[in-house]
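User: quick one, sequence for these tokens?
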């Protein structure tokens, strides 16, 4: 009887890794972020949402696409990267169109999410990803993609194992840091207002599904995916702890005066 139970469990895991997990991974960018996009659009403010999330996911997903040429990992993970790029591009546009601005034209006026009730935001070198205008965001992403395409052409598609390994480490390492900007933002503001619980739930559910897929799938899954998946799962649990202790501690956004870039 125990042997039969183990056989049944193995069959269930095989079915999940072969059919359920790939589909879940492919659609996870949509289920994770469509609610956040709609919430920002509906409230006409991206206050409380870290703009670094689209940055991290766009950069890591573009890295992952070029990583595929050398690693040839499971196709489901490649399709997921393309869908993630689409969703994060939409999220970035909606966030920029609805970012709150300080009522006073002070030195912090060009920093997204630097309204009066927001925690102090430190300036970055060259104001990276804190630009006041929208155009630099899209220019950076275009230059980043073109640079990687040129490097891929010069080095050769899949001919350099060292370059392929580097791409994998960058792609998965950057993606693993995804929860960190939101964790820092929540810690500074002592609130999770503006960040949708539905996103966190999808993140954690996605982590569980990814770990199952990474460790039990028969297809080629590089070790970078496994190591970074474990780290990201731990960070997402930390973000869940913040939701538990902080909750929504900010005043209702509808009562605030947020100025939007036109």
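Assistant:
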């Amino acid at each position: 009887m125990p042997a039969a139970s183990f056989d049944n469990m193995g069959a269930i895991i095989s079915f999940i890794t072969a059919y359920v997990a790939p589909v879940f991974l492919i659609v996870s960018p949509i289920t994770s972020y469509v609610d956040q996009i709609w919430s920002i659009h509906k409230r006409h403010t991206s206050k409380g949402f870290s703009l670094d999330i689209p940055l991290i996911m766009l950069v890591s997903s573009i890295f992952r696409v070029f990583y595929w040429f050398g690693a040839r990992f499971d196709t489901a993970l490649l399709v997921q990267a393309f869908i993630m790029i689409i969703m994060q591009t939409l999220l970035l546009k909606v966030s920029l169109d609805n970012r709150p601005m300080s009522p006073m034209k002070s030195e912090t006026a060009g920093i997204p999410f630097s309204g009066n009730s927001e925690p102090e935001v430190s300036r970055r070198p060259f104001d990276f990803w804190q630009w006041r205008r929208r155009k630099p965001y899209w220019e950076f992403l275009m230059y980043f993609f073109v640079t990687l395409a040129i490097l891929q052409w010069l080095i050769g598609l899949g001919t350099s194992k060292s370059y392929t390994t580097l791409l994998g480490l960058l792609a998965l390492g950057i993606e693993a840091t995804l929860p960190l900007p939101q964790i820092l933002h929540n810690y500074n503001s002592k609130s999770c207002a503006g960040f949708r619980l539905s996103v966190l739930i999808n993140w954690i559910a996605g982590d569980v599904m990814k770990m199952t897929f990474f460790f039990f799938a028969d297809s080629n899954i590089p070790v970078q995916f496994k190591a970074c998946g474990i780290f990201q799962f731990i960070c997402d649990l930390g973000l869940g702890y913040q939701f538990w202790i902080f909750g929504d501690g900010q005043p209702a956004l509808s009562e605030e005066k947020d100025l939007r870039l036109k």
